[in-house]
């Protein structure tokens, strides 16, 4: 890399907020190590230390606050909650694959069962390939799922046992090596803790140690009681740790299961894929066939003998999507989709109006009071209005978008429109007078003047506005989703709050961090874009 | 061909091309009103190279903007071939004092913006040729794909000239094209402008604050008196034969004479306003606070910001 492009690369790092990487590169390049190490200390070590201090302070202080859902979760619990969300995603993936597998098996069984009917299908005979090979692939796959299901069962099977021997007896019944391996990990890492915890709990419940007995002095009773309280606290802490550990090992088991799912040999996969693609072509043909049978029955009044069988066949070829539940990733995706949709509406409205305002003082004066009045209005005030108006206008039996999605997006748009509008207007109005003069001398048409001169000149400010808008939009979105029940992060927070379990707080905190990280990422992207359109002028 | 025509005009000196008659211009209204130019009369013949020299802030840009039609006179009239100039037109190409290149366009696109606008009917290939031809004229072909911020000041100014030339204007208006450049670059570009004019023989108005530059390049040089109410002084015809060599011309008696004549006016009658002229100069006084060496320096330590009080204005009164 030559000097100039290296410098450009460093500048790029800075714009995408990776400036803290620069000293590392300079160090590798052999520049003065003392300066670079000092820069690394300032740019990397200090922030990491600050984060550690924050986490420690959080961990310590969280234990002191007890809410109706238990103690406030510390960083480890929040991480564990994140793990459980990710685990859910893996589980859904497995379930979906299983759903597909079952549909496929049923289809193949029906083809066999109704072979005679299937042969009557008008047109070319569909080619599913070698039957024996298909059977082999299907049974391989079903074996894989047996294995996966057993792996996922391990945790449950072991959780009830009270000793290692008992656990070993359970493990011996497992068929697959992988389940046994998982069980070994669980037995060595989780079982002792579970057993000790259970014993402690039992002991406390039987309560002999702490119960006052005859002859105890008052002092002794008091000290027994304080000991009991201490024990309770210890047990609570132990339970929290146990939950974290259990979550970690559950995730471990699902990850292993996913590995097994992914390790299906590729020739099996290709056979299955071919089966599926042939089936997706045959499906519509069966539909057409069945429809023509029905039509001809009505027309001729004669019953087609195999009608019901064709119907059964047709049904097994219908595509049935996996009715899974929304995972955390789906919710994040929904939120992003909503905010981008709202942001796009806002930009499409704000930029043209901003341009007109910037070009024409009268228009600017006319619109300015409206901008100033609407700018500070909270999303919570807009939302009910939006809901009512959209509810009245957006009526459709088969809406392209969920109404909650529209409501949230429009609320986002209403709140995030203003920074773009104001900045575009300022940018256009402050276009260098010389550039305008160039346009005048060339007698550029109105459109060319705007697209070639005015807009590019104001692009840096437009992008500043867009960046602010996206920030506002993302912030507003969570509130809007909460109230509009749009199935994104906002609704996630709301649902967690509503179903108040011991996980509530940690889940909400996961959402808080997710929202923060995504917001930061969006801002960085916009900042980079803004830098791109500034033609070397630093912002 | 064009050149011969010019010689005719010079010989006969009859037909006026661009004419300013009793032009006055001021800005603002009420107590803020300031009169910048007053009673400007100027005849420029076709193919002629006219230089106008004047003080900074006298109203030179205002004057050339009036010629370009970017401004309209309060009094008097500007006419080109008898037609009143009241709006800008590509016929009167102007090279702006600060280049005015569009920073988001490359050299090619900057020139192309003008060419595509003016020669819309031409086929693509012909326009491309035309653009490249004019960029070549200012020796910038290697920088064709570069953006203005990758170019030096001199290169930017050349692009600006190329853009104006590509418009094939009837008259070329140059507003202090070289005053932002260092002396060496300036000399090179002066030669280049001289060369281009020899080739093209367009009517040129050159605004400058450098008397030598004016004498070296122009057929006639006209001083503009100091503002406010600046007006044009006596026209001096530069009857030094071309090509004029920068070094040789310095020893030319006629050259010295013209120079003296113009400077006499600018320092004398044309510089005098209410008896005195005041120049205001910004002075930066040295920071006299000793630096505290015990104070730890911040990383990438910079000098502490200059205190406001270090900036002083100095008024120099010039009386003649
Ligand atoms: N649009 C305007 N509105 C008000 N005053 C103006 C305007 N344009 C120029 N002026 C004033 O007119 C005077 C002359 O300005 P002008 O730019 O023509 O000077 P100049 O001779 O080109 O100076 P320079 O050598 O610095 O380029 C200045 O005092 C300036 O403040
Ligand atoms: Mg000027």
Domain count of chain A: the total is 3
Task: State the major sheet of chain B.
Answer: 6 strands, mixed
The top-level CATH class of chain B is Alpha Beta
How are strands sequenced across the largest beta sheet of chain B? 6-7-8-3-9-10
Most strands sheet of chain A: 2 strands, antiparallel
Q: What value does the Rg of chain A take, in angstroms?
A: 33 Å
Topology:
The complex is a heterodimer of chains A (539) and B (320).
Chain A: H1 3-15, H2 22-28, H3 33-62, E1 66-67, E2 70-71, H4 75-113, H5 115-119, H6 131-159, H7 164-172, H8 177-189, H9 191-206, H10 218-262, H11 266-300, H12 307-317, H13 328-359, H14 361-374, H15 379-393, H16 403-429, H17 433-441, H18 446-484, H19 489-498, H20 504-532
Antiparallel strand pairs in A: 1-2
Helix pairs in contact in A: 2-3, 4-10, 4-12, 4-20, 6-8, 6-10, 6-11, 7-8, 8-10, 9-10, 11-12, 13-14, 13-16, 13-18, 15-16, 15-18, 16-18, 18-19, 18-20, 19-20
Chain B: H1 2-12, E1 16-27, E2 34-45, E3 49-54, H2 60-68, E4 75-80, E5 83-84, E6 92-95, H3 107-118, H4 124-137, H5 153-166, E7 171-175, H6 183-200, E8 203-208, H7 211-217, E9 220-224, E10 236-237, H8 246-249, H9 253-267, E11 276-284, E12 311-319
Parallel strand pairs in B: 3-8, 3-9, 6-7, 7-8
Antiparallel strand pairs in B: 1-2, 1-4, 4-5, 9-10, 11-12
Helix pairs in contact in B: 3-4, 3-5, 4-5
Residues 27-28, 36, 54, 56-62, 97, 176, 209 of chain B line the site of adenosine-5'-triphosphate.
């Amino acid at each position: 890399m030559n000097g100039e492009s290296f410098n450009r690369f460093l500048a790029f790092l800075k714009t995408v907020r990776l400036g803290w990487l620069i000293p590392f590169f300079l160090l590798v390049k052999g520049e003065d190590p003392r300066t670079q190490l000092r820069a690394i200390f300032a740019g990397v070590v200090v922030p990491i230390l600050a984060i550690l201090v924050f986490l420690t302070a959080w961990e310590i202080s969280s234990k002191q606050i007890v809410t109706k859902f238990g103690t406030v979760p510390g960083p480890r619990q929040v991480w564990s909650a994140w793990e459980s969300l990710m685990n859910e995603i893996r589980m859904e993936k497995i379930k979906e694959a299983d759903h597909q597998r079952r549909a496929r098996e049923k289809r193949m069984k029906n083809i066999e069962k109704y072979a005679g009917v299937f042969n009557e299908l008008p047109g070319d005979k569909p080619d599913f390939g070698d039957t024996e090979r298909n059977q082999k692939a299907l049974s391989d796959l079903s074996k894989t799922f047996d294995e996966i299901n057993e792996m996922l069962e391990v945790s449950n099977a072991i959780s009830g046992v009270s000793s290692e021997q008992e656990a070993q007896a359970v493990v011996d019944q497992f068929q697959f090596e992988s389940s046994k391996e998982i069980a070994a990990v669980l037995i060595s890492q989780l079982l002792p803790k579970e057993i000790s915890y259970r014993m402690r709990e039992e002991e406390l419940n039987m309560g002999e140690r702490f119960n006052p007995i005859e002859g105890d002095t008052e002092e002794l009773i008091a000290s027994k009681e304080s000991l009991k309280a201490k024990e309770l606290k210890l047990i609570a802490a132990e339970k929290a740790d146990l939950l974290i550990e259990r979550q970690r090992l559950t995730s471990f088991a699902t990850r292993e299961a996913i590995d097994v799912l992914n390790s299906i040999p590729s020739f099996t996969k290709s056979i299955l894929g071919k089966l599926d693609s042939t089936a997706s072509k045959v499906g519509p043909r069966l539909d057409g066939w069945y429809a023509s049978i029905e039509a001809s029955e009505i027309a001729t009044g004669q019953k087609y003998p195999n009608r019901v069988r064709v119907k059964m066949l047709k049904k097994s070829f219908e595509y049935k999507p996996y009715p899974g539940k929304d995972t955390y990733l789906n919710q994040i995706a929904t939120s992003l989709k909503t905010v981008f949709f709202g942001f796009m509406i806002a930009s499409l409205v704000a930029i043209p109006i901003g341009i007109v305002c910037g070009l024409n003082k009268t228009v600017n004066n006319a619109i300015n009071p409206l901008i100033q009045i609407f700018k500070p209005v909270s999303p919570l005030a807009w939302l009910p209005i939006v809901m009512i108006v959209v509810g009245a206008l957006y009526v459709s039996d088969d809406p392209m978008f969920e109404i909650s999605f529209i409501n949230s997006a429009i609320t986002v748009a209403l709140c995030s429109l203003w920074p773009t509008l104001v900045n575009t207007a300022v940018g256009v109005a402050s276009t260098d007078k010389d550039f305008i003069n160039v346009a005048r001398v060339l007698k550029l048409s109105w459109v060319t003047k705007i697209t070639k001169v005015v807009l590019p000149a104001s692009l840096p400010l437009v992008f500043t506005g867009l960046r602010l808008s996206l920030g506002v939009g993302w912030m507003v979105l969570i509130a809007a989703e909460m109230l509009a029940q749009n199935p994104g992060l906002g609704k996630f927070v709301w649902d967690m709050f509503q179903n108040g379990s011991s996980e509530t707080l940690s889940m909400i905190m996961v959402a808080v961090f997710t929202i923060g990280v995504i917001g930061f990422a969006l801002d960085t992207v916009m900042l980079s874009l803004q830098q791109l359109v500034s033609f070397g002028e630093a912002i | 061909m064009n050149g011969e025509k010019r010689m005719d005009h010079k010989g006969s000196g009859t037909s006026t091309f661009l004419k300013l008659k009793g032009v006055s211009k001021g800005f603002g209204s009420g107590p803020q009103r300031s009169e910048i130019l007053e009673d400007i009369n100027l005849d420029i013949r076709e193919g002629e190279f006219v230089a106008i020299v004047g003080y900074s802030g006298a109203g030179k840009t205002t004057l050339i903007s009036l010629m370009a039609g970017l401004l309209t006179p309060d009094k008097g009239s500007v006419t080109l071939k008898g037609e009143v100039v009241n709006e800008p037109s590509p016929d009167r190409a102007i090279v702006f004092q600060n280049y005015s290149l569009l920073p988001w366009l490359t050299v090619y696109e900057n020139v192309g913006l003008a060419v595509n606008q003016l020669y819309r009917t031409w086929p693509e290939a012909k326009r491309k040729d035309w653009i490249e031809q004019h960029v070549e004229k200012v020796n910038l072909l290697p920088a064709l794909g570069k953006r203005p911020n990758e170019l030096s000041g001199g290169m930017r100014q050349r692009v600006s000239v190329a853009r104006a030339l590509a418009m094939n204007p009837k008259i070329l208006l140059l507003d202090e094209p070289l005053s932002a450049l260092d002396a060496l670059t300036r000399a090179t570009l002066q030669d280049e402008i001289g060369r281009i004019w020899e080739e093209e023989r367009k009517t040129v108005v050159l605004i400058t604050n450098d008397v030598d530059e004016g004498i070296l390049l122009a057929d006639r040089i006209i001083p503009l008196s100091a503002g406010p109410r600046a007006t044009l002084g006596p026209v001096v015809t530069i009857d030094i034969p071309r090509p004029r060599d920068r070094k040789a011309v310095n020893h030319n008696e006629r050259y010295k004479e013209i120079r003296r004549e113009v400077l006499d006016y600018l320092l004398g009658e044309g510089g005098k306003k209410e008896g005195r002229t005041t120049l205001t100069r910004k002075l930066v006084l040295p920071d006299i606070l000793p630096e505290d060496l015990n104070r730890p320096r911040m990383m990438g330590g910079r000098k502490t910001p200059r205190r406001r009080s270090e900036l002083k204005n100095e008024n120099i009164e010039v009386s003649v």
